[in-house]
Amino acid sequence: MKIFIDNHTFRYEVENIIRLFFPYEKFEVVYGLPDDEKNFIFTEVSYELAVTAVFDNFSKRLSGTKSGNEKEDETALCRLLFDVLTEFTGITVPWGMITGVRPVKYLRSVIDKKGRAFAEDYFRSTYKVTEEKLDLAVMTEAYEREILDSSKEKSFSLYISIPFCPTRCSYCSFVSQSVSRIKHLIEPYIELLCDEIARTGEIAKRNDLYLETVYVGGGTPTTLEPEQLAKLIKAVNNSFDMSTCREFTVEAGRPDTITAEKLHTLKEGGITRISINPQTLNDAVLAEIGRKHNTEQTMQAFKIASQCGFKTVNSDLIAGLPSDTVESFKNSLDTLISLGIENITVHTLSIKRSADYTEQGLTTDRKDAERTGKMLRYAHQALLKNGYIPYYLYRQSRMVGNFENVGWAKKGHEGLYNVFIMDETHSILACGAGAVTKLKNPHTGDLQRIFNYKFPFEYINMYDEMINRKNSVRNFFSKL
Question: What mean pLDDT value characterizes the chain?
Fold first, then answer.
C-alpha cells in the first residue's frame, strides 16, 4: 500500500493510525501527490486538512478546517484518517486514536491539567476511545494514583535481568537464551552480575537514594540453580539498604523450573512476591506455543508457593492465543480465581516482529479480535466480581484487536514496580544483560537511558567497557 503525504510533517502519526487497521501491511511512503495507484491513502495540508482513501471498491475523501496550530492540525488530520479507515474496514478500534504504550499516564496528565470531566470527554470525543475502555482507564488511573502518591522523594527501583529460559515461546521476542545451549555462560554471568549489583549499590548509598522495589525478571530467573539464586539475592541484600524496600519480586515464571528448594531459597532471601505464569491452563495450547510444562505442574507450583508462605503470587494469562477458545480462557481464569491467586495479569497476545510466529507468517484477523475481545470482557467482569481491582495498564504494538494488558490484584497485593515503571515515576537502576537503566530528572521529568549489552556473551566479554559506560549514572546523580 502506498501512503502519499503532501505539505505536512505528520508521517509518524499517520503511519501509527494506519497500523491500527492494517497491522501487518507493508507501506511505501511517498511525498507528493498520488499517481495512478489503485490502492492508496493520501493525506494533505493546504488551505484545509484532507484525507483521501482509494481501494478497489471504495473511495472516500474527508476534509476539515486548518487551525494553524501544528499540534491541533496533526490531531485533526489523524482524526479524519481514523474516520475514513473506520468506514472502509468496519473495524471498531477500542482505544480509538490512542497509539501510545501508556494511555493511563496520558489520561492522568490531562486530568491534572484540565480536570477529570474534561479529560474523560477529551478521550471520548477527540481520541474516540470507546466507553468500555474509557471506564477501564478511569478506574485504573484512580488505583494507580493511590500507589504513586505513596512513593517517596529520591526513591528508585532496581531491575535485575536473568536472560535465560528453558525454551523460547512462539510469540516471544525478548532477548533470552535457551539454557540448554549456553549453560556454560550462567556461572560467569552471575559472577559479573553480582559485581554490577554491588557497584550499583554504592551509587545508591553515595547519593542517599531510597530503594522502593526490586524486580528480578527475564527470561526466567528460576532457570538458575538454588545456589545461584541464593548468591544473587545475597548480593542484593548486601549491596542496598533493604529497610526501605517495599516489594521484592522474582519472576518464577515457568512452572517447570519451580522446585520447593528454589522457592524456599527465595523466601529465605526476603522475596515478598513471585510470579508463576502458565499463560493458559489448556495443555494443548501450551504445547502449541512452545511451553514445556503442563497444567498439573502449574498447580504443583502454586501449592509449593503456598507452602513456602508467599503472601502475594502473580499469575499471567494471555488472551488471544492461537487455538485457545473463549471457553478455554474462561476455564483458565476461573481456576486462578478459585485458587485465590492474589494478582492476575491478563495480557493480550502481541506478535512481535522477531517472534517465531511472525517468521511462520502468522497474522490475526477480525475473528481473532472478536474472540479476544470476548475473553477480555469476561476477565473484566469476573475479576471485578471477585474483588480484584485494575491497578496498572499498558499497551504494545501489534496486539490482537488493539486491546491492552491489565494487572488485576486484590487490594493490598498490587505490584508496585509495575506501576512505577509504567508511570516512569522515578529512576530505574538496571543490572544484567539487556537491562536498561532509566534515570529520571526530578526537576524536569526528563529521562536518560543507559543500555547494557543485550546478550550474555556480550555482557561477559565486554563487561569492563559496559561498566565504564555506566559511570554516567554517577555523573547524573552528582549533577543533581
Answer: 93
